[in-house]
């Protein structure tokens, strides 16, 4: 698992479509190390990892490639075969999805074999070469003593959230969290109103914002924009070259929030789906 996180760090570079990020594994780590290990797949040649997959739900795998592996036909055919055959243990039978945002042989093979284009996602990026202005609200970095505050905002921001204090502590034990920060924004009365987690991939590489949410009782006051600006500033302070995020294109409110926080909207990317 540590090696999967390390290679994903090395693969991050500006100009790539928002790919699988070490922060994605880090956020999944809230379910514990064993569950995260069961969710990760790697494809290697001669001891070198060329692709990493995260089974984010039973019917969805998210895939990232080494920068020079996108045109590797042998690798692409092996991966396509692994994903198509349930006995290989990547995806189950029936309707399943693949998130692979890099153009290349792998996507071409899946489309040629009957997979369809699926839900569009909107990637956004903010350059961090210039200083980030103050976000205008009080924002604190959350440590173990304030976990309950971070958890409460998360659960109030996302319907059906299963985040708990225990899951935060599990997440914080993972190798990716060494380069992460949890942030909480407060209103003028000291009430926690928004939260975000940011994940660095190391100096000079893009950092990920995942997740970001505003308490359902405090929406419409600009707190989403404020916490997003604070997240960008935090990543810049950690040496990130840019801040990246990807959200469903149908979530027009989220897209507008990121844009208002100085993020540039990139062309939509589409998942792939194999229907039952």
Automatic annotation (TrEMBL):
<dbReference type="GO" id="GO:0016747">
    <property type="term" value="F:acyltransferase activity, transferring groups other than amino-acyl groups"/>
</dbReference>
<keyword id="KW-0808">Transferase</keyword>
<dbReference type="Pfam" id="PF00583">
    <property type="entry name" value="Acetyltransf_1"/>
</dbReference>
<protein>
    <submittedName>
        <fullName>Acetyltransferase (GNAT) family protein</fullName>
    </submittedName>
</protein>
<dbReference type="InterPro" id="IPR000182">
    <property type="entry name" value="GNAT_dom"/>
</dbReference>
<feature type="domain" description="N-acetyltransferase">
    <location>
        <begin position="137"/>
        <end position="276"/>
    </location>
</feature>
<dbReference type="InterPro" id="IPR016181">
    <property type="entry name" value="Acyl_CoA_acyltransferase"/>
</dbReference>
